[in-house]
Amino acid sequence: MSKWVVLDIEGTLSATDQVLVVLYDYARPRLGPWIEQHGDDPVVAEAVRQIKELSGHDDVVKALHDWMDADQKVTPLKTLQGLIWQQGYAQGDLVAEFFPDVVPAMRKWHEDGVKLAIFSSGSVAGQIAFFKHTTEGDLTPLLEHHFDTVNAGPKREAASYHKIAETLQSDDITFYSDVPAELHAAQEAGWKTVGVARAGEPYGNADFTPHPTVWELS
């Protein structure tokens, strides 16, 4: 086993529907009110500026909804979603659920001295809230680092994995993901890779060649 295991979330640790249905449905009606109520927050203000720049118009909420409909991993959208989800988890409105094999595997890796990190398109704030409020309790003590598209970069580019390796100060890293393109990028950066083929998930029947493939974590 590698010194580090880096894990994707959506489709790998947790069902895609939990993000695209449960979390998206929770965030969608709250985006506009959140921007109105937190307009003085520098993080929110910067997100709004980026949204206007990227969308080319001033209808911020429409741009956000359009990106959500297309499941586009746009940074300011992820930032605002993460803030909303963070509050939702803290209030008890949301509770994270994982595939049955995930938490036992994470705990075993941790007990065996393997260091765990997350690389997800969801914001770091959203990730931390996700792992803090789960059906299995607070899992954040199991995790050493969180990476997203802001502090690492796009998940399908090798440069992002080089950057993570520099942060982890290691080249002994295994990446688990359900998306072949992400695995290709990680492999290009010199990482070990494992494809996770979950039945019923969008990439459940994908071709993971040349990456080793598992159907559950162990």
Automatic annotation (TrEMBL):
Statement: the UniProt record of this protein carries the keyword Magnesium: yes
Pathway the protein takes part in: Amino-acid biosynthesis; L-methionine biosynthesis via salvage pathway; L-methionine from S-methyl-5-thio-alpha-D-ribose 1-phosphate: step 3/6; Amino-acid biosynthesis; L-methionine biosynthesis via salvage pathway; L-methionine from S-methyl-5-thio-alpha-D-ribose 1-phosphate: step 4/6
Descriptive protein name: Enolase-phosphatase E1
Assembly notes: Monomer.
GO molecular function, one term: 2-hydroxy-3-keto-5-methylthiopentenyl-1-phosphate phosphatase activity
Assigned keywords, A-Z: Amino-acid biosynthesis, Hydrolase, Magnesium, Metal-binding, Methionine biosynthesis
Cofactor: Mg(2+)
Organism in which the protein naturally occurs: Lentzea fradiae
InterPro entries: Enolase-ppase_E1 (IPR023943), HAD-like_sf (IPR036412), HAD_sf (IPR023214)
Pfam families membership: Hydrolase (PF00702)
Co-factor binding details: Binds 1 Mg(2+) ion per subunit.
Reaction catalysis annotation: 5-methylsulfanyl-2,3-dioxopentyl phosphate + H2O = 1,2-dihydroxy-5-(methylsulfanyl)pent-1-en-3-one + phosphate
EC number(s) reported in the record: 3.1.3.77
Function: Bifunctional enzyme that catalyzes the enolization of 2,3-diketo-5-methylthiopentyl-1-phosphate (DK-MTP-1-P) into the intermediate 2-hydroxy-3-keto-5-methylthiopentenyl-1-phosphate (HK-MTPenyl-1-P), which is then dephosphorylated to form the acireductone 1,2-dihydroxy-3-keto-5-methylthiopentene (DHK-MTPene).
Keyword Magnesium (UniProt): yes
GO biological process entries: L-methionine salvage from methylthioadenosine
